[in-house]
Amino acid sequence: MQKSSTGEKVFQYIDLFIMILIMATIILPLMNIFSLSVSDRAAVATGQVEIFPVGFSLYAYSKILKNSVFLRSLVNTVGITVVGTAISVVIITMLAYAMSKKYFFGKKLVTYYMIITMYFSGGLIPTYLLITNYLHLGNTYSAYILPALVNVFYVIVIRSQIEAVPSELIDSGSIDGAGEMRVLFSIVLPVIMPTIAAISMFLALGKWNMWYSVLLYATNQKMWTLQYYLRSIVFESFLEATAQSTGESVDAKIIPAENMRMASIILVALPIVAIYPFVQKYFVKGILTGSVKG
């Protein structure tokens, strides 16, 4: 076994030191957030909590989980994520399958038309007017799902994966009498499932982190999502800090305590973080699929 040279060892130590610094910048803030969320309110209020909890209290979590706005936001976010992701994946996959066919009439024209939408949009104001004034989708879940229903980049990725499927495999299904839908769902999808899973994860993350659409199209608090709920808490904290710096008075009843804000961050991020390890293997396969030719 060849021994590492002095230069290689120095490089490895420097690399290890840099990786530890990067990990520290990620882990320490998370530890601080968690510690603030489970520490005693008095310790949090007096600024005693840093990396580790001071005392132990689940008061903040109990208070938030009983908050009707949080619970409604949670239901909205889960519903939008599940329904929106499922519809998007089905439509994107079917569109990509159609675009992969050589006999698709006007394939080149449709491709150019779709690619143009990747670089140019109608603009914020025309889009807002379209959604609210013409389609009348304000304060509806459709305003959160329909505008981002199809992602052209993902259509191109899935189309490329379908085109990489051996034509003999697809032809065998047609010879056995299977229609296009049967070929797609029984033959093509199992082959490209890692890519579908990876794209589904990306789409779900986008839906889960949605807040800007709520800002534009929702005036009813019942239509809030978790990220918009979290934004409102952070914004209230900003108002508190601004009022303190200017010497103005602020109603303390509307300002959530620090431990409640941190507990909200934990609760908002926890579901998607808990799901990620179970889809990580598909995520990695989806990224690597097509990168190695053989």
Overall tally of domains = 2
What is the CATH-assigned architecture of the largest domain?
Answer: Orthogonal Bundle
CATH fold-level name of the largest domain: MetI-like fold
- Derived from helix and strand composition plus strand pairing, the structural class reads mainly alpha
Q: What is the average per-residue confidence, as pLDDT, rounded to a whole number?
A: 81
Instruction: State the helicity in percent bands.
Output: over 70%
Largest sheet: none
CATH superfamily caption of the largest domain: MetI-like
First-to-last CA distance: 31 Å
Which CATH class of the largest domain applies here?
Mainly Alpha
Measured by DSSP, the beta-strand proportion falls in under 5%
- Please give the count of helices: 13
